[in-house]
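User: Here's a structure from my thesis project, written as structure tokens. My advisor, Dr. K., wants to see whether a designed sequence matches the one we expressed. Can you design one independently, without my sequence as a hint?
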């Protein structure tokens, strides 16, 4: 936002996120109108946002608010509107123009990554995500995006490494650690399962979340053992054998049943526990 705008101080303290409320600003300046555009896009009303942008960028003798023709923000908002409307191909062109106008900024590069991923160009998406993440670790969404694309490309090991590179000073550090555990489970071997269990064991999360994630890890281990054979090592508190993994899953499902929000959910979890319980001879 330009601090020289006549309504800059009003916008700095404005608490309304309603377009009608913003139009009550002391002056309907460029910055006020751009704020209205942003609010309209955030609310999903992209048609109104684009109309506002069209009016703002069309010269008029009767319009006192003037937008610098070199201002890149209209293209930025057009790109956001296109993404909101799931028109990623259109959004690419707008964000590319923004990237050319402000080549040192990370946000348009991140937007290009999102568009490339949405259009299925995973190689380009990975390149943009990696560039942003390597340049500025404040953009944690770039790490999640890069990991997501790497997983889609089958590079699970790199995806896990990227998630583990989110610094512990970030508010998303724990989420990245949890995502790393889940990423390690896809099409994995015994060593990956053991590593996922060890990583989960070290996480400081609540009992419900820990139990849920433990069940996911043990489900992956059980699937691996039934498709292959018993292996060396332990996952959480279970040996990599069908019998112990069944016991481990039964315990997790029964624990999760105690956290169930509805009777139906509780019954379903108890049924899963009974189904996975090892058969015994009486």
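Assistant: Designed independently from the structure alone:
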């Amino acid at each position: 936002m330009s601090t020289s705008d006549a309504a800059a101080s009003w916008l700095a303290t404005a608490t309304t996120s309603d377009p009608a409320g913003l139009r009550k600003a002391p002056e309907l300046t460029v910055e006020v109108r751009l704020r209205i555009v942003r609010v309209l896009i955030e609310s999903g009303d992209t048609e109104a946002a684009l109309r506002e942008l069209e009016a703002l960028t069309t010269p008029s003798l009767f319009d006192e608010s003037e937008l610098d023709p070199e201002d890149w923000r209209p293209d930025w908002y057009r790109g956001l509107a296109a993404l909101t409307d799931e028109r990623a191909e259109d959004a690419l062109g707008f964000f590319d123009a923004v990237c050319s106008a402000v080549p040192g900024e990370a946000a348009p590069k991140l937007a290009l990554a999102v568009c490339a991923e949405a259009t299925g160009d995973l190689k380009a998406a990975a390149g943009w995500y990696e560039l942003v993440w390597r340049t500025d670790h404040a953009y944690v969404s770039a790490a999640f995006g890069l990991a997501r694309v790497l997983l889609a490309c089958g590079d699970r090991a790199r995806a896990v490494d990227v998630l583990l590179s989110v610094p512990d000073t970030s508010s998303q550090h724990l989420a990245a650690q949890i995502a790393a555990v889940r990423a390690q489970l896809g099409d994995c071997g015994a060593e990956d399962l053991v590593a996922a269990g060890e990583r989960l064991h070290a996480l400081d999360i609540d009992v419900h979340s820990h139990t849920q994630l433990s069940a996911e890890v043990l489900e992956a281990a059980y699937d691996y053992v039934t498709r292959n054979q018993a292996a060396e090592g332990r996952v959480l508190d279970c040996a990599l054998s069908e019998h112990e993994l069944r016991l481990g899953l039964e315990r997790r499902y029964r624990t999760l049943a105690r956290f169930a929000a509805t009777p139906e959910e509780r019954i379903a979890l108890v049924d899963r526990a009974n189904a996975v319980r090892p058969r015994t001879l009486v």
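When you compare it with your expressed construct, this may help: The chain is about 65% helix and 0% strand.
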